[in-house]
Design brief:
Blueprint (H helix, E strand, L loop, with lengths): L2 E6 L3 H11 L5 E7 L2 H11 L3 E4 L8 H9 L6 E6 L5 H6 L4 E4 L4 H34 L7 E5 L2 E5 L4 E6 L4 E5 L2 E5 L3 H8 L4 E5 L2 E4 L3 E6 L5 E5 L2 E8 L1 H11 L2
Parallel strand pairs: 1-2, 1-3, 3-4, 4-5
Antiparallel strand pairs: 6-7, 8-9, 8-12, 9-10, 11-12, 13-14, 14-15
Helix pairs in contact: 2-3
Length: 254
């Protein structure tokens, strides 16, 4: 991990001291220095550092004014105030500074600051990776459409699952009976069941898939099984297998 830094202070000895302490950390790369607020703003635009170590009392501008200007940018760096004045700590965090270190700098205090920066950028990198993976997965997804396509008279018809009354397995594909009439699907009944993926559809029999919302009557049959009368297809009686009869009774509380 490499975190690029800009040092801003109008006193060269203070910049030298901070540079010396930060040089002990290979994760921190100091890419430039600035001795004034205006120069700091220009170098942020030019160098685009990850973090700015910023003094509050500069000869040309107030450090808070510099920070507010920098933080308005689209991809703004983090701000760490490095100053001799402890009375501005609360104000510093009001402008979203991530840390506030006092002069004279100590090695132990700089260590805490660097560790905080490493943690921030590690978390940011992990989030960026997650977002990249999520974006890639979204790019693989097909546009979402609830309608299913079926054939009739050499035309493809688009039907919502809730418009299906029931489906019947054929030797090749499936017969799909809807509120608009009968259609053909090249999918097997199992494939159709997976595509519809709705709790309202009941596999009454290995050869039949029924929309429970379209069941008009349940007719007791021999051996503890049933026949289903389907709305719009009352003459078609859909059988319920012995294995599925128990589930049907549970669904309709029979």
């Amino acid at each position: 991990m490499e975190i690029t830094a800009l040092l801003v202070d109008d006193e060269p000895p203070a910049r030298d001291e901070l540079r010396y302490l930060l040089d002990a950390y290979p994760e921190i790369k100091i890419i430039d220095e600035a001795f004034s607020g205006q120069e700091a703003i220009e170098k942020v635009d030019e160098k685009k550092p990850d973090v700015v170590f910023l003094d509050i009392k500069l000869w040309d501008m107030d450090g808070f004014e510099v920070a507010r200007n920098i933080l308005q940018k689209e991809k703004s760096p983090l701000i760490i105030f490095a100053t001799a004045y402890d009375e501005f700590a609360v104000k510093a965090f009001e402008v979203n500074a991530v840390d506030y270190i006092l002069k004279p700098f100590s090695a132990s205090r700089i260590e805490k600051t660097v560790n905080r920066l490493i943690e921030i950028f590690r978390n940011r990198k992990e989030k960026d990776e997650i977002l990249k993976v999520a974006e890639y997965l979204r790019s693989l997804e097909k546009p979402c459409c609830k309608k299913l396509s079926f054939w009739k008279n050499n035309r493809i018809h688009l039907i919502y699952p809730e418009e299906i009354c029931y489906c019947e397995a054929e030797e090749k594909g499936s017969k799909v009976k809807t509120i608009y009439g009968e259609f053909y699907s090249a999918y097997t009944l199992t494939e159709l069941e997976e595509k519809i993926n709705s709790p309202n559809f009941f596999r009454a029999h290995k050869s039949y898939l029924v929309n429970l919302e379209k069941v008009k009557e349940i007719i007791p049959w021999f051996g503890g099984t049933y026949l289903l009368s389907i709305q719009g297809y009352e003459k078609d009686e859909v059988p319920v297998s012995r294995r599925q009869a128990k589930e049907l009774k549970r669904i309709f509380d029979i």
